[in-house]
């Protein structure tokens, strides 16, 4: 038996940094082993300007591996369609997501907020998004909420009839919220951000879907706080992962 739940409609995403071991010093000791060997840790506190210069040099010349000696774990809540895009990022990422087989999925669904641009103009690769009219906004909200209600009711009907969760979930849409832990390092995060955010400093523009960009922006804010010199060098060098 399941209890009939009321639906929750959300237009935001959540990103929480749950665990990290990440600082600019992690880049420096890894890089300085080249010249200082086992003394590279002692070199850390010597000269901040030199440290800044070294990080910038590594970023500019794309010496990427020193940016891998750190770790950040995020707990992310977002619609399934965002996770489908997210998990295409294979290198330097670890994922664990909630299961639709082992737990009853909660009725939390994505409905775009008023600031989400609804209308796409132009040809593939050169899209521009513009604000929808109030009528379009209403059409989107009404259609999505109605569809979510129907599909979640069908899901619950099947569960009540004794059907397994893994079978019944097929009726649920990609606007359903899911949750996952995603662990990465600064290098893999930079590659992700280069593809999944738009930024005026980006040397190579990308055109990500807004909802994954919303996740990316929150991750970026956490990372910037942990590794300010690396973050500054990333922006200074056109947001290209080294
Ligand atoms: C705007 C946008 C639109 C997209 N549209 C589509 C779409 O329509 N359809 C679709 O299927 N995907 C689409 N994607 C996903 C895209 O093709 C990539 O799968 C995704 O961005 C992950 O990038 P990545 O492979 O570079 O990352 P990662 O998997 O993290 O790989 C990082 C880097 O490692 C190297 N690497 C990883 N695996 C290999 C390999 N097997 N061989 C050689 N080198 C490797 C590459 O240098 C790669 O850049 C889109 C992505 C973006 C940003």
TrEMBL record:
Catalytic activity reported: dUMP + (6R)-5,10-methylene-5,6,7,8-tetrahydrofolate + NADPH + H(+) = dTMP + (6S)-5,6,7,8-tetrahydrofolate + NADP(+)
Needed cofactors: FAD
Annotated keywords: FAD, Flavoprotein, Methyltransferase, NADP, Nucleotide biosynthesis, Transferase
Annotated GO biological process: dTMP biosynthetic process; dTTP biosynthetic process; methylation
Enzyme class: transferase
Ligand binding (dUMP): 85-88, 97-101, 169, 196
Active site (UniProt): 196
EC nos: 2.1.1.148
Bilayer-spanning residue ranges: none
Cofactor, free-text remark: Binds 4 FAD per tetramer. Each FAD binding site is formed by three monomers.
GO molecular function, one term: thymidylate synthase activity
Pfam families registered for this protein in UniProt: Thy1 (PF02511)
Keyword NADP: yes
Pathway: Pyrimidine metabolism; dTTP biosynthesis
Amino-acid positions noted as binding FAD in the UniProt annotation, renumbered to this chain: 65, 88-90, 97, 185-187, 191
CDD domains: ThyX
Role according to the record: Catalyzes the reductive methylation of 2'-deoxyuridine-5'-monophosphate (dUMP) to 2'-deoxythymidine-5'-monophosphate (dTMP) while utilizing 5,10-methylenetetrahydrofolate (mTHF) as the methyl donor, and NADPH and FADH(2) as the reductant.
Quaternary data: Homotetramer.
Similarity comment: family membership: Belongs to the thymidylate synthase ThyX family.
Record-linked NCBIfam families: thyX (TIGR02170)
Full protein name: Flavin-dependent thymidylate synthase
Organism: Streptomyces mangrovisoli
């Amino acid at each position: 038996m399941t209890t009939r739940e009321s639906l929750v409609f959300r237009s935001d995403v959540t990103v929480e940094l749950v665990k990290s071991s990440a600082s600019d010093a992690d880049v420096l000791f890894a890089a300085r082993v080249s010249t200082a060997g086992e003394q590279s840790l002692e070199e850390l506190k010597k000269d901040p300007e030199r440290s800044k210069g070294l990080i910038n040099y590594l970023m500019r010349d794309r010496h990427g591996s020193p940016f891998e000696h750190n770790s950040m774990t995020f707990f992310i809540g977002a619609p399934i369609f965002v996770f489908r895009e997210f998990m295409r990022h294979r290198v330097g990422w670890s994922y664990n997501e909630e299961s639709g087989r082992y737990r009853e999925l909660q009725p939390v669904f994505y409905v775009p907020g008023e600031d989400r641009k609804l209308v796409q103009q132009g040809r593939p690769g050169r899209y521009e998004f513009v604000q929808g009219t109030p009528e379009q906004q209403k059409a989107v909200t009404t259609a999505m909420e109605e569809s979510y209600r129907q599909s979640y009711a069908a899901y619950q009907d099947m569960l009540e009839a004794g059907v397994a969760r893994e079978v019944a979930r097929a009726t649920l849409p990609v606007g359903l919220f899911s949750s996952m832990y995603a662990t990465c390092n600064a290098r893999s995060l930079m590659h992700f951000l280069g593809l999944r955010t738009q930024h005026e400093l980006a040397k190579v523009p990308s055109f990500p879907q807004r909802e994954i960009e919303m996740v990316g922006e929150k991750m970026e804010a956490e990372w910037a706080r942990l590794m300010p010199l690396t973050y500054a060098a990333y922006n200074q060098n056109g947001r290209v992962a080294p």
